[in-house]
Amino acid sequence: MPSVLISGANKGLGLATARLLGRKGFHIWLGSRSAAAGLATEAKLRAEGLNVISLQLDVTDKDSIAATASRIMAEGSLDILINNAAIMDEGVPPGQPAGPPSAVPLDALQRSYATNLFGPVRLIQAMLPLLLHAPSGRIVNVSSRLGSFGHQTDPDWPGRAVNKLSYSSSKAALNMATVLFAYELRHTSIKVNAVSPGIIATDLNGEGASVLHGRPGYGAPEEGARLVVDCALMPDDGPSGKFFGPGGELPW
């Protein structure tokens, strides 16, 4: 049975992605920073008939990542890695708008990069030995159009008004990591791509999925998950080192 590791998989986009891949016959390694939340999600998905094992995985903790890699190596194989865990931290209290880049505290930048860039890079490095043994290894980095230089330098793009230095720059860095890993692995069977799932109702947006779902402009997590799954199941003749969104390929 093919297997997938998803970080931040106990809710939102990660949970929706786990559910879709589980229904396609994948064994799900469900990464969750909270062990209790992960176990609750595991029970929920197992009740739906899915093959799921919860792992306590904090992408900012190198020991947690090492323990996750050791567990998967000891018990099975890995075909797909989905780097989904992320935070949006601009150094302001929840519910308040982000300040200008000149006012963003450096510790907020450090926290954002620890989760949104260093975490995915550490996970890729730790899981690469397993993925290289997979017949068609796939790495999907969940990014954002806010990290696109093409969009952010377009004066007519409405997303410029969001103006989140920590989040946008950390996702831009993740995009560059996607390109560089894809280039390194170009002669292997592994494909590495980034996905922007669109504006979806998740806790990352600050109010929670249950509050946001149904509002104009906010899609259900399942809509974004379909894009992630499409990249995770990229055919062997498909592209690597690309950035995809709801409308197709996005500019870096």
Describe this structure in words.
By secondary structure, this protein is α/β, with parallel strands linked by helices. It is 42% helix and 13% strand. Strands 3-2-1-4-5-6-7-8 form an 8-stranded mixed sheet, with helices on both faces. Helix 4 (106-131) links the parallel strand 4 and strand 5. The chain is globular, with a radius of gyration of 17 Å. Residues 206-216 have low confidence and may be disordered.
Uncertain stretches: 206-216
Secondary-structure element series: EHEHEHEHEHHEHHEE
Distance between the termini: 34 Å
Mean pLDDT: 93
Main features:
single chain; 252 residues; alpha/beta; 8-stranded mixed β-sheet; 8 helices; 13% strand; globular
Topology:
Layout (H helix, E strand, L loop, with lengths): L2 E4 L5 H12 L3 E6 L2 H13 L4 E5 L5 H14 L4 E4 L22 H26 L6 E5 L6 H4 L12 H20 L6 E5 L13 H4 L8 H12 L10 E3 L2 E2 L3
Parallel strand pairs: 1-2, 1-4, 2-3, 4-5, 5-6, 6-7
Antiparallel strand pairs: 7-8
